[in-house]
Design goal:
Elements lengths: L6 H13 L2 H8 L3 H15 L4 E3 L4 E3 L1 H25 L5 E7 L1 H6 L1 H11 L3 E7 L2 H9 L5 E5 L8 E5 L1 E5 L11 E6 L4 H12 L4 E7 L2 H9 L4 E5 L8 E3 L11 E7 L6 H14 L4
Parallel strand pairs: 3-4, 3-5, 8-9, 8-10
Antiparallel strand pairs: 1-2, 5-12, 6-12, 7-10, 7-11
């Protein structure tokens, strides 16, 4: 079984390859020129191959050396990342996170699970309210962070665009009714505004059969076949099916998701969750 590669020797090898000589590599790694030469001999003995071509003006990797150089850089990068991860202090604290009901149900659980695995000592308190209410909650300091659906003209950076789709019961066809029965989120909700604008722009008559901030209530009405609704794709439960053009319904514009932060909550725990959410939500899953 081959011996594991010595990271200290690989660090010296990279220095020699990048500087072109043992003498130039020596101050870079804090060793003497003779020590650099001895380390390179040890590395070549360990791998059983010559790695460097010693020319009159420079020392350069041969073919085997060039191949090893790629892996050496990867190994040192992974080593540095592992050390940073294991040596950083454990963050503690509590973060008040606001999120709309529909995102809390399906989009957020796996994200929070991953955050909890990385930061087990940070407690996250969820506040579930519509985006308009959460925007005010951030402004008045009631929450530290908020995931919101961007309202028209709201100055918030969009970190994720989510498809906005029509949903219906798999056992009913309410789209065949005129005027179209629609279940809506409460007044002021971005999803409601976009849906009604789309119906208006396309001249489709409708009637509201349900209006609430509750995702569970809206899903229950749709599942019973009493109406269609518009949901973010990430929020569609298995009990509903996605409908659209084939059912004669106009396409809905995407929802834009952003993250608001209370500037008076500069704790490390808030910073960690803020960075984590930006990274996770920007990835289409």
């Amino acid at each position: 079984m081959p011996s594991p590669l010595d990271l200290d020797l690989l660090k010296t090898f990279i220095a020699v390859a990048e500087t072109g000589s043992f003498s130039n590599a020596a101050p870079r790694i804090g060793r003497s020129q003779s020590a650099v030469s001895m380390q390179m001999q040890r590395l070549e003995q360990a791998v059983g191959k010559q790695l460097l071509v010693r020319g009159p003006k420079a020392v350069v990797p041969n073919t085997a050396g060039a191949d090893l150089l790629i892996y050496a850089r990867r190994l040192l990068k992974l080593s540095d990342e592992a050390w940073t991860s294991i040596s950083r202090p454990e963050e503690t604290g509590c973060v008040r996170l606001g999120v709309p009901d529909d995102y809390a149900a399906f989009l957020l659980p796996p994200v929070l699970a991953r955050f909890g695995a990385e930061h087990p000592l940070v407690t996250v308190e969820l506040v579930c309210e519509p985006s308009a209410a959460l925007t005010k909650a951030v402004e008045n300091g009631r929450v530290d962070l908020a995931i919101v659906t961007r309202l028209p003209d709201q100055p918030v950076k969009v970190v994720r665009q989510e498809r906005f789709v029509w949903v219906a019961s798999p056992n009913h066809a309410p789209w065949e009714v005129d005027p179209l029965p629609v279940a809506l989120f409460e007044s002021g909700c971005t999803a409601r505004i976009k849906l009604l604008k789309t119906l208006g722009d396309n001249g489709r008559a409708y009637r509201s059969t349900y209006s609430s901030a509750s995702l569970l209530g809206l899903v229950a009405v749709v599942q019973a076949g009493l109406a269609v609704a518009g949901l973010a794709l990430c929020s569609v439960p298995p009990s509903l099916r996605i409908i659209g053009d084939k059912e004669g319904l106009p396409a809905l514009d995407d929802l834009e998701i952003g993250i608001l932060r209370n500037p008076t909550a500069p704790t490390v725990a808030v910073e960690r969750l803020n960075d984590f959410l930006h990274r996770e939500l920007s990835q289409k899953g």
